[in-house]
Amino acid sequence: MKLSTKGRYAVMAMADLACHGRTGRPVSLADIAQRQEISLSYLEQLFGKLRRGDLVKSVRGPGGGYVLSRSADDTRIADIVLAVDEPIRATRCRVGSPKGCQSDHSRCLTHDLWEELGHQIHLYLSSVSLADVVDRRVLSRRAVQAAPVAQPVAARPVEAMVEA
């Protein structure tokens, strides 16, 4: 499973917009391009799709740029990826096609596994908001769900070993 640069760059640019647009002022694509090291012409293409997907609004004139159409809390990462025409799937088969990826058009033995993986990725990206990314709450979500792991003695700082 590989997410192309189109989806990754769209999420990076939207996170930058959410972070730098908190004051309500429009953010220029040139500023986003410079901070995120993404081609300006590529960002223009992506933002055209994001605007058509109703995720951003353009503001014309001096000091113009882009603003989020809705709050970062209400913007899901899956919405961003799908808005730039990035399918979230892990199979080689075409989505919705009864034909499989085998030369005889049957589905391979692992088709259901990869189809479910694509579904789980979509569910995960739908559960993460743009605000989660900007506020760096993505890893903490996993940490809260996971049980703490004991640190081996050899990995503890020397001060901790002396106190023990």
Can you give a write-up of this model?
The protein has a single domain, classed as Orthogonal Bundle (Arc Repressor Mutant, subunit A). A hairpin with a 5-residue loop joins β1 and β2. It is mainly alpha-helical and 164 residues long. The relative contact order is 0.13. The longest helix is centred in the C-terminal third of the chain and has 17 residues. It starts with a helix and ends with a helix. It is built from 8 helices and 2 strands. A two-stranded antiparallel ribbon has the order 1-2. The protein is elongated and about 60 Å long.
Compact description:
The chain has 164 residues and is mostly helical. The chain has 8 helices and 2 strands; from the N terminus they run αααββααααα.
Secondary structure elements and their pairing?
Layout: H1 5-20, H2 29-36, H3 40-52, E1 56-59, E2 65-68, H4 77-83, H5 111-127, H6 130-134, H7 138-145, H8 158-163
Antiparallel strand pairs: 1-2
Helix pairs in contact: 1-2, 1-3, 1-4
* CATH domain class: Mainly Alpha
- Number of domain units: 1
Described by strand count, sense and barrel closure, the largest sheet is:
2 strands, antiparallel
Helix-strand makeup class: mainly alpha
Order of helices and strands: HHHEEHHHHH
Mean pLDDT: 82
Shape: elongated
Helix content: 40-55%
CA-CA gap between termini: 46 Å
Strand order of the largest sheet: 1-2
- What is the number of E strands? 2
Features:
49% helix; elongated; single chain
